[in-house]
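Entry 14. Structure prediction run on the chain below.
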Amino acid sequence: MSDDATINLATVGTAELEGMSTQVFAGCLDTMSGESIARFKRMRKLSASHRSALEKYLLEHPEKRPGGESEAAPAAAPAKAAAKGKKAKPAKAAKAAKAAKADAPAQPKGPSPLLPLKRLLRAWWVGVAVKDLDAYDKNGGKTVPKTASAKPVEKAAPAVVTQPAAVEFSRAEMLQMLWGEGFALPGGEAFTEKLLNDLPVPEGHPCLDITAGLGGGTSAAANLCKTVVEGIEADPHLAEAAKARTTNERAPIACGDPMIQPFANKTYSAIFARETLFTVPDRKKLLAHLVPALRPLGSIVLTDFMLATRDPASPEMKAWRDIEPVRALPYTVEEYTELLDLNKFSVQGCDDLSTEYINFIQAGWKRLHTCLQTAKFSPETASMLMTEGNIWLARCRALESGQLRLISIKGALRPAHPMSDAMTMPT
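Output returned:
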């Protein structure tokens, strides 16, 4: 095997990975466990040649397939026992325990997984070991000097170690590592389907998603509603990444501002918006612009960060407002209901999804932290991760305080009254 086989694929940058030959790529897979290969396949976007090489490798090495290592272990145990003339013990109890563990609901325990990732990144940033970070802070941001030993010790010549290339990826790639392929927000496809459950969308009538992100939710909505869902994304970088990865013809993505984007009247049967309206200063103006584009009896489905009450802000809420990249202007549920009523909507559902959302946040950052434990970052990538981590940590703490909530609201346009009703004269 060549020296290139020592490359750790988990730490290879996007450009280096794209330029890697399939022979070197296959050689690198030999050094990875089945679990590492499965995680790498899930988290990284591969070219057609690399994906083909990976599938071929897994066919030739069944022990590296998902579950292959755990399935191979029980087979080895009876053989070893037979060699010693002992009867192998049945593995039923172990399997039952494993099944019970798998059936137990996955709930995050202990501190947020964002904290160890931020600590790892900060230690790398200031150039000290993680274990020395507390001493570094206590010393005013200076490296703690080592005490001189009584007897000088000869230092051995340092071993030549090949440092892995710095991991570098875009914000779109990082968001997909956190939330899943095609998603810029927590929850994934299953959460999208839950939000749109029982939505009355006539088949064939188009819908509009004004917060398309990376297109995953837009595509999931199109598949669920069996209709075209047009996606609008205001962030040019996310919109470009969404258009590059989208293959669903029923979920086209365009870059635009929904506040000024022209929409044809009475076109859409439903409009979707996720976790963005809390930064829009004039939501009344936005809805006045969108409502004419809805068909009669059309629906709106939105999720947003909302205030539990208008009580004085807690420290967690103040920290959240300070860290948001765009000024946060959250409404209460009552204020949202009043806004929808002014725009002729009847509220048909209002659900508090805060606990579920916190679980999504913590699971995403725990997954990313596990993947990047041994990675070396470029300064740009480390800065981006720290910024994103600070935002989501503040959101998570504000939600845990109970003063901020993640609320889903469904509304439907009220039927218009016929002109004859309005002009009926009393007798």
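Confidence is low (pLDDT under 50) at residues 1-5, 69-109, 146-150, 422-427.
Filed with the rest of this week's runs.
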